[in-house]
Amino acid sequence: xxxxxxxxxxxxxxxxxxxxxxxxxxxxxxxxxxxxxxxxxxxxxxxxxxxxxxxxxxxxxxxxxxxxxxxxxxxxxxxxxxxxxxxxxxxxxxxxxxxxxxxxxxxxxxxxxxxxxxxxxxxxxxxxxxxxxxxxxxxxxxxxxxxxxxxxxxxxxxxxxxxxxxxxxxxxxxxxxxxxxxxxxxxxxxxxxxxxxxxxxxxxxxxxxxxxxxxxxxxxxxxxxxxxxxxxxxxxxxxxxxxxxxxxxxxxxxxxxxxxxxxxxxxxxxxxxxxxxxxxxxxxxxxxxxxxxxxxxxxxxxxxxxxxxxxxxxxxxxxxxxxxxxxxxxxxxxxxxxxxxxxxxxxxxxxxxxxxxxxxxxxxxxxxxxxxxxxxxxxxxxxxxxxxxxxxxxxxxxxxxxxxxxxxxxxxxxxxxxxxxxxxxxxxxx
Length: 430
Prior knowledge:
The chain has 430 residues and is of the alpha+beta class. It has helices spanning 28-45, 58-89, 141-154, 204-210, 258-262, 270-304, 311-321, 336-370, 376-389, 394-404, 406-425, and strands at 2-4, 8-16, 19-26, 98-103, 110-117, 131-132, 157-160, 172-180, 191-196, 218-224, 238-252, 428-429. Helix 1 (28-45) crosses helix 2 (58-89) and helix 7 crosses helix 8. The two termini are 48 Å apart.
């Protein structure tokens, strides 16, 4: 697509569904006019011995400041022409354009190219005939028991072990450890640690040593750092330690009684507690089952309607996943080692990020194509449901959602639900 004005020629080439390459030619007359204004403004602010401020001859200005005037002219022309080219061609970029292949001569026309990314034009030709298998959402009795065990564990109390009794896995100990160097001297002052044995809070050899000591006992041990130790330089290293056990405790768990249930705040019996646990687990299982069905359908849509995700959108999605999407918060300074690990993590998350971004783009495109965006009535109805559930007025919930930015999230949730109900109606879910 070409677009021409008196002093600007624009040619747009489509590289992919999300890239456009603009070839821009600025007329020689405009180049000279712009350069003249730049030189004039530069001369007004310059001061050289023997000349009054702003009265430098044009020849002197050129001799002393010609290259900087050229650079300012190039920068100004690119900025102005790029903006005009976008307006003329109706292109709305989603990221800053990449300028290259600049050709400039102060006595001739100037040309340059800009590659820009735009929101991809996703063409979804096939949206029906897919199949998905819904996982079971049944709740096993063991799952309820596991939640009860976790609640008991959270409310357990640490009681002292009997005198002379050695700790076991699951017990909590307070120990004082002194490390020795190769000469046998203390490498540093003794340090105190409170750990639960068996929860990987200490290396295996240290835990094994502690298990041989009762409260009040101490001993010297040679330990070896395991091969999977986070600090690579210490893997396989051996060191002598003096370990003194200051305190040993074992967690005592409460019995599951009606009193226990009442202590959780809103239950009058164990039966009421179990019913709530089962209800919550059922709700989670249903949600996981629905999420899996949607994943299967999205996978098949992507296979039937492949498209590329814009690099800039993918980068922003990765920033969001890694907690760096808020530009108002300064990014934490990392060491070179941390930066390398962060880069590896970012690279490993790319496939997941690309899938998530494409899923979002698919939902948006189908909502637009099929007229499935959340209506105001549907948003109002959802707000009223939330208000009833939390014994609030709809206006209170509305204001709170709007202030926190969650109103848009609610709108997207409703839109997504409508999109996937449509897709499921076009597919077979067993």
